[in-house]
Write a structure and sequence with these properties.
Blueprint (H helix, E strand, L loop, with lengths): L1 H43 L9 H10 L34
Length: 97
Amino acid sequence: MSVISAFFSFLVRIVLAVATLVLVLFLLSVAVISMLGLLLWSLIRGRRPTVDLSGFARARQFRAGAGFARARAASADVVDVEVREVREVRPGAPRLE
């Protein structure tokens, strides 16, 4: 009787392991298909996909002991911008290209 019980226990473990593997592979495939779909959607709309890796840089600074302090050197780069008035364009008027 214990041999049959051990066999069924082993069989249940194998079935659960295979079901877990199938579930993980299914979720991985859904993630990859979603990523490719969003990539194609952004390319169809004419927008270049952006990859934001700033979280990795912040984590690297935090592990290096810098904490969450931002770099202050970037604030010194001030660019002056010339202000221009935008005129209203009338229908049929020639446009500057």
